[in-house]
Amino acid sequence: MDLKKNTEFVFQQVAEASREANRDPASVSIIAVTKYVNVKTAEALLPLGVHHIGENRVDKFLEKYQTLKEFPVTWHLIGTLQRRKVKEVIPFVDYFHALDSLKLAQEIQKRTDHVIKCFLQVNISGEESKHGFSKEELLELLPDLAQLDQIEYVGLMTMAPFEADSDELKQIFKKTQELQAEIREKQIPNMPMTELSMGMSRDYKEAIQFGSTFVRIGTAFFK
Ligand SMILES: *Cc1c(COP(=O)(O)O)cnc(C)c1O
């Protein structure tokens, strides 16, 4: 594994995809998803220009955070969060990407002493195995979610099905972007909805075409 070469490649590819989409490369933040590697390897990314670290599990998030918290890193919890684990992790999270129920939002509201930036996870493809709100469900719950003033709903997060082809990916990302705009236009104070968390190693190019502002990339760094 050549970390330096992989990192340069990821940064360069994301910049190129941004330019192809007529977007400023600076408008796309790259989250290095470090779940495949130990703390030492994660730390080695920092001098290479990585400023965002993402983990999908609470225990691994806390392990990396405790060791690397003195570095200038923005911390992303990107995976499913059980309600009983909210209080041990949420104080250290800068962005939580997988808010997928009203009950979880209420628990976050209860357990935090500062405003937490959250992405609402949507399941646009309707795939059974995926977490997230359906479009209809989310639109119906917005008034209840909006009452939770310790949460800033920065945007939507989605994960495309593993087997999706390029056309399906584009459909999913496009629909997510349209739903983001629909919610943003409601101008709800704690729902700025300016961000989109979409795109992983295999589909970040398509995601950037449809407005992604945070790509979550693991494999491409560590292969
Ligand atoms: C692992 C993971 C990623 C990164 O996936 P890669 O295919 O390794 O780039 C992104 N998002 C979530 C939620 C993940 O769990």
Automatic annotation (TrEMBL):
Pfam families from the UniProt entry: Ala_racemase_N
InterPro entries per the UniProt record, alphabetical: Ala_racemase_N (IPR001608), PLP-binding_barrel (IPR029066), PyrdxlP_homeostasis (IPR011078)
Source superkingdom: Bacteria
Keywords annotated in UniProt: Pyridoxal phosphate
Matches recorded under SUPFAM superfamilies: PLP-binding barrel
Keyword Heme: no
N6-(pyridoxal phosphate)lysine modified-residue sites: K35
Record carries keyword Manganese: no
Residue ranges occupied by any Alanine racemase N-terminal domain in the UniProt entry: 30-222
Family note: Belongs to the pyridoxal phosphate-binding protein YggS/PROSC family.
Role this protein plays: Pyridoxal 5'-phosphate (PLP)-binding protein, which is involved in PLP homeostasis.
Name of the featured protein: Pyridoxal phosphate homeostasis protein
Species of provenance: Streptococcus downii
Source lineage: Bacteria, Bacillati, Bacillota, Bacilli, Lactobacillales
